[in-house]
Design goal:
The chain is 0% helix and 47% strand. The protein has strands at 3-7, 10-12, 18-25, 34-39, 46-51, 58-60, 68-73, 78-83, 92-98, 110-114.
Length: 116
């Protein structure tokens, strides 16, 4: 079965940084684009960033452009989200998923809280 395990969330002050990781197993990692989504209480789960399977093409939500960077390691079967210059409005549960526009599988999520 597909397994996606997020880690790296936590509490950080505004302006700080975190790096999220998603360890993937149970499928051919290099055949799939990977994405990060986030969901705050009472809000929809929205795309944060995505990266293609081979070429490394990326896309980002306007709200995180210039601050967040998605990357992947196809040897370690891991996708990352480097988050810099964090803002309180970045507070959410962050999920990784398989796919670029259509998400087939989801991880369990990791909490990111940005607060003073």
């Amino acid at each position: 079965q597909v397994q996606l395990v997020e880690s790296g969330g936590g509490l950080v002050q505004p302006g700080g940084s975190l790096r999220l990781s998603c360890a993937a197993s149970g499928f051919t990692f290099t055949n799939y684009a990977m994405s990060w989504y986030r969901q705050a209480p009472g809000e929809e789960r929205d795309l944060v960033a995505a990266i293609s399977s081979i070429s490394g093409s990326t896309k980002y939500a306007d709200s995180v452009k210039g601050r967040f960077t998605i990357s992947r390691d196809n040897i370690k079967n891991t996708v990352y989200l480097q988050m810099n210059s964090l803002k309180p409005e970045d507070t959410a549960v962050y999920y990784c998923g398989t796919g670029w526009t259509k998400i087939v599988s989801w991880g369990q999520g990791t909490q990111v809280t940005v607060s003073s």
